[in-house]
Amino acid sequence: MRCHYNEPMSEYDARVTQLRDWLTAGLGRSVDRLTLAAGDASFRRYFRAHEGDASWIVMDAPPGHEDVRPYLKVSRLLEGTGVHVPHVHASDIEQGFVLLEDLGNTPYLVRLARGEDVDRLYGDALTALAAIQVRGREAARELPPYDSRAMQRELELMPEWVCARHLRLALDDAELALLVRSFDFLTAEALAQPRVFVHRDYHSRNLMLIDDRNPGIIDFQDALEGPIGYDLVSLLKDCYISWPRARVEGWLREYRRRIAREGLAAGTSEREFLRWFDLAGIQRHLKVLGIFARLWYRDGKRGYLADLVLTLDYVRDACARYGELQAFAHWIEARIVPALPAANARELSLR
Fold first, then answer.
1. Which of 27, 195, 248, 325 would be 319's cystine partner, CB 3.0–4.6 Å?
2. pLDDT of 180-199, one tens digit each?
């Protein structure tokens, strides 16, 4: 996660005062220091509250912008699968505060970017994901469905924020029709996959390196019941770090064998499972392209623009592997790929 300030400083100061009062007067904590731990791509912020040698994380989710109830619900469901999420010590729904277990300062990405313990870290992450998907089968039914409406809404972010806003492309009727056909295909393929508990952002910035039941899993409040390939793509085709295809396929084969032994639907073949993985990935990465561009133009967070390149590369690679997407793949190569470097350079030079 990255630190961003979504509110004017005066409102930010007021929230800090309110939060400190909740910790001290409301919960009876003797807070020595309150420091900003992180912010994410929403209005949520996370503070570290220090009391002697102990520390906690406090979520600040301003009412009117955020609702902590989905977080609290999904936290309870995930704890039931045995994975390590931050334990909730206290919450105040009306004020938008949650007191959480502190999982430390080391996201997976820090170690992975240095090439340290890669197989061990991914092994732990895949073990945890298997627990979520296998043990979370009943819990998944308590989540909203990742349905066609949600998927289409996400896919539409790409033409709106990447094509029109970032690349300044005017798409003609034939191009728009191609997008409709391609998005309908991706949605239908995703909906045909086995349904599981989907974290929706299961990647190296949301997995914390910890000693007890590694990894610590965060940022799960948007979980849905959806396609089995989705979280695997978030992890193994991470928008912030990449690995050779052969290595990814090796992790994927072992994962499929694991969940099949535990009774989860894993496809009729490795080829089918890989198809689920790749096609769920195209839907996810098209959505992420739109979100990354929107974070700059709507929210003033340009740090994600540099991540557009790797995210687009995932789309290009996967589309080229499937005949049903050849026309879409050619369109991306002709219209999106040549325009991206100049658009990024233009926007990154502004501030």
1. 325
2. 999 999 999 999 999 999 99
Q: What is the pLDDT of residue 4?
A: 35
Biggest alpha carbon distance in the chain? 64
Which tokens go with 266?
Answer: 């894993």
Among 214, 206, 209, residue whose Cα is nearest residue 111: 209
Quick check: 56 and 100 in contact, CB under 8 A?
A: yes
* CA trace torsion 217, 219, 222, 227 (10° rounding): -40
Residues in the chain: 351
Instruction: Give me the DSSP letters along 84-110.
Output: B---EEEEETTTTEEEEE---S-BHHH
- pTM for this model (two decimals): 0.92
Does residue 301 contact residue 346 with C-beta atoms inside 8 Å? Answer: no
Above 60 in pLDDT, residue 9?
A: no
Residues sharing a CB contact under 8 Å with residue 295, sequence separation 6 or more, in sequence order: 41, 301, 302, 304
Alpha-carbon gap, residue 336 to 341, rounded angstroms: 10
Q: 130 to each of 93, 124, 229, 255, 264, how far by Cα in Å?
A: 31, 10, 12, 8, 9
Write down the H helix ranges in 266-325: 270-297, 308-319
| Residue-wise burial string across 10-30, b where 16 or more C-beta atoms lie within 10 A, e elsewhere | eebeebeebbbebbeeebebe
Q: Is 35 exposed, middle or buried (0-12, 13-18, 19+ CB in 10 A)?
A: exposed
